[in-house]
Amino acid sequence: MGMWVGRGRKARRCYGFDEIALVPGRITINPNDVDVKWKLRDVEFNIPILAAAMDGVVDSRFAIEMGKLGGLAVLNLEGVQTRYDDPQEAIDKIIDAQMQESTRVIQEVYSKPVQEELITKRIREIKAAGVKVAVSSIPMKAEHFGKIAQEAGADVFVVQSTVTTAKHYSTEYETVDFFKLRRHIGIPLIIGNCVTYETTLELMETGADALLIGVGPGAACTTRGVLGIGVPQVTATADAAAARDFYYKQTGRYVPVITDGGMSVGGDICKAFASGADAVMVGSSFSRAEEAPGKGYHWGMAMPHAALPRGTKIKTRVAGTLKQILFGPAELDDGSQNLVGALKTSMGNCGARNIREMQMTELIIAPAIKTEGKVFQQFQRVGMGK
After folding, report:
1. Active-site residue, from 194, 221, 270, 350
2. DSSP state, 221?
3. 317-327, pLDDT tens digit by residue?
């Protein structure tokens, strides 16, 4: 398996969203008749989309709105929301910084320590609105922050790092024991990020309730450029889904896989589900929502879910309200709005009544799928030609 890349050296061919397409089904279904719900342990969500734990995306207000719309937003426990009583002031300071000052300003903002009382405060703010609360921590702080979050009433705890494995070796610090963490955390536990069959399987064996799949595809993540590490999302998702299905056959326990990153438009999200995902985690699309604290700005970080800044700031236009991004009506023709509507329509055209059936959709390798016959869109600067 694989292709020769040099004498005695083979490499496996892997695929990203831009290289594949979905084949329409033998039957078609009214989009209003498809079911996009998904479950995390015994908790059911109306839409299979999570908002990433990025400071420019999720604050208490955004998490509440996302929850009311049927989704789940993850709050970063090591970001500005838990460092400042007025986190918007800190975010605005970053937004207003000149390009050449971005790195210094971000480092200054994140130098303030996390205030544990603010963890409890933020969780209770979201909880008071009657929606599910999800919070995120890096592995080193997981046991400590997990206890605080659980006592404050969090419904979901996410442990996330750039690359996560069930076994980690270090002579400098104590490593997280996911088996032990699972015993101490009674609420649903999501662990990430991973991209291989073997690691997915081993993390499922720790007792995780769901896994995040993806290393380096996010708009704010520099892992692939800096470290050269990553697997294109279609292949990563398919491999993880294969591990999930094998684990289910062996144990009878179904552990959802959540494709995390690399999706900016509805078509990418549809392809993630067809590749095997049970849900997706999206960041950049939501950062452009009117409710997002980042107000349409991106700033680069070494890892978007932790306080490890790396500088570059990019301004993007606001893409409407969160409701409009999720459910329309679409005012833009670039696929950035009505994400749930796009998913339902794609499922209907593929003949999939639910997410599990969408995972069985036929995939084809189609590297020219975005450019075939689109020359006039390029001239007119509409749709894919923008």
Report:
1. 221
2. B
3. 566 899 999 99
Q: Is 41 a catalytic residue?
A: no
| Structure letter (DSSP) for residue 77 | T
Q: What is the CATH number of the domain that holds 209?
A: 3.20.20.70
Residue 175 lies in a domain: yes
Domain assignment of residue 10, yes or no: no
Task: Name the range with the highest mean pLDDT among 202-211, 216-225, 332-341.
Answer: 202-211
pTM of the entire structure? 0.90
Given a cut of 90, whether residue 305 has pLDDT beyond it is no
The verdict on whether 183 is a catalytic residue reads no
**pLDDT at position 307 over 80:** no
**If you ran DSSP here, which 8-state letter would residue 98 be given?**
-
Helix (H) and strand (E) counts for the chain?
A: 15, 16
Per annotation, catalytic residue among 194, 288, 310, 350: 310
Count of the separate structural domains present in the chain: 1
Mean pLDDT of 169-184: 89
| Alpha-carbon separation of residue 138 from 3, 93, 102, 147, 165 (angstroms) | 36, 25, 24, 14, 13
Cis upstream peptide for 188 (omega within 30°): no
| In-domain check, residue 270 | yes
User: What is the distance between the alpha carbons of residues 261 and 287, in angstroms, rounded to a whole number?
Assistant: 13
Rounded Cα distance, 200 and 195, in Å = 7
Classify residue 91: in a domain, yes or no. yes
Q: Which amino acid does the sequence have at 385?
A: G
Q: 222's torsion region: left (phi>0), alpha (psi -120 to 50) or beta?
A: alpha
Domain that holds residue 230: 17-385
- Tell which wins on pLDDT, 100 or 14: 14
Rounded Cα–Cα distance for residues 265 and 271 (Å)? 10
Q: How many residues does the chain have?
A: 386
The pLDDT > 70 percentage for the chain reads 88
Give start and end residues of each alpha helix (H) in 51-162.
60-68, 87-96, 102-109, 116-127, 142-152
Model confidence at 348, in pLDDT bands (50, 70, 90)? very high
How far is residue 222's CA from residue 202's CA, in Å, rounded to a whole number? 26
Closest CA to 325 of 279, 265, 277, 268: 265
Mean local confidence (pLDDT), 238-257: 98
Write out the two tokens for 382.
Answer: 């509409």
